[in-house]
Amino acid sequence: MRTLLLIALLVTVSASATAAERVTVDQLEQRLPSILAAPRTASEFDSETQAELLQDLNDTVGRFGRDADEAAQVDSLELTERLTAGTLARLIAKNKPGPDVRHALEKLADRSALLDPPAAELPNQPPPDADSQRKMVDAGGQYVLRVLSHLPNFFAIRTTERFDDSPVMVNGIMLGYPVSMRFVGGESREITFRDGIEVMDPMKQEHPAPGEQDGGLASSGEFGPEAAIVLADVAKGAIAFHHWEQTPAGVAAVFRYSVPKQASNYQVNYGCGNRISFHDKPAYLGSLAIDPTSGAILRLTLEADSKKGDPISHIASVIEYGPVVVGGRRFIYPVRSLAFMVEDAYACVRHAPREKLMRPVAMVNRTSFSDYHRLGSTATIVSDVTAAPDSAPAAAHP
């Protein structure tokens, strides 16, 4: 069995010292305009000179300080429902927030990725009968084994952004912990899928973040291995229909599943330095969104169990699939994934073993897949042209 390190975002446990305010997506939409309250405008002042000075101040200082303050207010919220990509795009287009607030909203959406969408966003369809449910799950298994695990050879760009709430260090001195997840690095590199195996070429890395260090979270398995493990293990676990859901590829049937530890083939590995210091096959649960017609897996979530004393906890993953046109044909490929975990304060991290952290550190990877191209070659066949008898032979060309 292929070893996987698939870790996901902390959703139910806040790593912040202060408790977050829990809100629904609708409450967030109502709150956002007040968070983005416009500053006083020039028309509110009698003096034209004062008005011009105030406007200049709003245009300079306001763009930075106000945006950061508004982003902090968004960071203090915790959603009780999933903020879907469509709703997030609509909120950004409607409210036109600054870059800091936009990034805070994206992180808020990430933190809600393991939750269900608001009930108002779910299709109003009756649940399928038991026989239809069984056929959908069987079709999902066949899709993973026959289609997802045997995709045509292609290459794509895998872009990963890393976030965590580790302490801020300057010249070896700890300045303190951030109030929310902060960007700590990223990379964009080419991956190749050949003969059913995903290969990442280390020689084709693009745009590494300054100061990027080895280590941290790593995720894989988006192109079939994780889904194959889940659907194989579910045969010895439990699975049941939960709701219908709208996805970019159409309406999907969402099933909830659980796998006990004795049936689990999902592997968690944690490395300290150059060696694996922790290995486990934990129990896990999650959800599967299946196309009811083709059996295609459109969304997969996984949350692993953990025990007291484990160096890492809150391990989970989210993989989203969508329609992609490659070589003139339409396929369902991974388009986005999330990977998260919480590292214990006394675990080995990117610091000396004697330097223990004051509290656990939450880590998040946000990965997108783009620029899909099919591997192959093309050839043009040119028929041989016979020269006329009285003509001179044509000059040879290489």
Sequence stretches where pLDDT stays below 50 over 5 or more residues? 1-17, 40-46, 204-214, 350-354, 385-398
> What number of structural domains do the residues give?
2
Q: Give the strand tally.
A: 16
Q: Could you give the order of strands across the largest sheet?
A: 7-6-3-16-15-14-13-12-9-8
User: What sort of overall outline do the alpha carbons produce when their principal axes are compared?
Assistant: globular
Q: What is the string of SSEs from the N terminus onward?
A: EHHEHHHEEEEEHEEEEEEEEE
Terminal residue distance: 50 Å
* Discrete helix count: 6
Proportion of residues in β-strands: 25-35%
As a percent range, the share of helical residues equals 10-25%
Kindly report the average pLDDT value: 79
Radius of gyration, whole Å: 26 Å
The largest sheet is: 10 strands, antiparallel
Structural class: alpha+beta
What does this protein structure show overall?
There is one protein chain. This protein is an alpha+beta fold. It has two domains: 93 residues; 245 residues, no CATH class. The protein contains six helices and 16 strands. Helix 2 runs parallel beside helix 4 and helix 5 runs antiparallel to helix 6. The chain starts with 20 loop residues before the first strand and ends in a 24-residue tail after the last strand. The N terminus and C terminus are likely disordered.
